Amino acid sequence: MTISSSSGNSSRRKKVTPLDVKRPQEMAREPGTSFLRELRLRISSLSQTTLELEQIVQYFFDEVQSAVLVEGLTYAHPSFGVDLQYGSLEKHRASYRLNTQQQYFGEITFSRRKRFNETELARLESLLDLFIYPVRNGLQYREALRSAMTDPLTGVGNRLAMNNALDREIELARRYGRPLTVLMLDIDKFKAINDIYGHAKGDDVLCTVAEYIEQSMRSVDAVFRLGGEEFLIVLSDTSLAQAVIIGERIRQSIEVSHQGSASEPHVTASIGISEFAPNMSADDLIKRADRAMYCAKEKGRNKIECAPA
Ligand SMILES: Nc1nc2c(ncn2[C@@H]2O[C@H](COP(=O)(O)OP(=O)(O)OP(=O)(O)O)[C@@H](O)[C@H]2O)c(=O)[nH]1
């Protein structure tokens, strides 16, 4: 493990190799180390009870307090989209880049109002090896969950992710009485696109349609591919009238961006919209949107239809 650090106003930066990180046996020779040994054991066993990154960082923050007063702790790994903060972010900071020989595992920052002294920094550094491996496991777990819930072709959520998201959104809509709408989108005559332009072009179309849907939504909305050429879009806190506007934006953006040529297919999509009511299950909501989408197909495709209230 390699830890590079910068600390406080002095902005020192140094590298610590695995040999520099004190092992429990070495610390046992120092005064007061039975306390640190117990602390190491406690952190180590707590970290093994979970794979949830938030909990691992929280445990570390809570336990580190007994060795060194720390008022705030942040842990970030931008490429995993992780940015966690516990306590308050204060003026004096000690930051460590966490690396093993092979891989970078993010950056941890301890902060507080009073400057850290060298003994305290050494103590914090001596505990970092207890942090990096649980964090590595937590990141791997997060990645495994993410890929289990992602459609590999388009990169949007898959059916499993949709089930989770919809259950959560329905619970929020019920609890707070907020509107919730879903859009079922199906690419028109997709079989013909495959037949005329080839399967690879069909795959490209699926990817660009997913992109145009994402570009037409707010960041809080979510899109899922249900298989084939069918997508479900979940619009939280959105009424039927607002959903029609968003649906129309999506429909138009797909059509305008796929005008068609000798080598490119003309692509359109049909959309069915359904608004949640408290007596509905997730399944009811999806089925209603699906029926509305088939109405749009029957009425000539490249249209939006709403499920009856
Ligand atoms: N390229 C590609 N094609 C797929 C994929 N999944 C499903 N398909 C094809 O999508 C086509 C769907 O065709 P249909 O269900 O008949 O519907 P359609 O041609 O879109 O016609 P309408 O829905 O009535 O407008 C089938 O030919 C499937 O083989 C995929 O991942 N990639």
Account of the protein in words:
By secondary structure, the protein is of the alpha+beta class. It folds into 2 domains: about 1-150, Beta-Lactamase; about 160-305, Reverse transcriptase/Diguanylate cyclase domain (Alpha-Beta Plaits, 2-Layer Sandwich). The protein contains 10 helices and 11 strands. It has helices at about 25, 35-45, 55-65, 120-125, 130-150, 160-175, 190-195, 200-215, 240-255, 280-300; strands at about 1-5, 10-15, 70-75, 80-85, 90-100, 105-110, 180-185, 220-225, 230-235, 270-275, 305. The strands form 2 sheets. A 6-stranded antiparallel beta sheet has the order 2-1-5-6-3-4, with helices on one face. The protein has a 5-stranded mixed beta sheet with strand order 8-9-7-10-11, with helices on both faces. Helix 8 (about 200-215) crosses helix 9. The chain is elongated and about 80 Å long. Guanosine-5'-triphosphate (GTP) binds near residues 153 and 203.
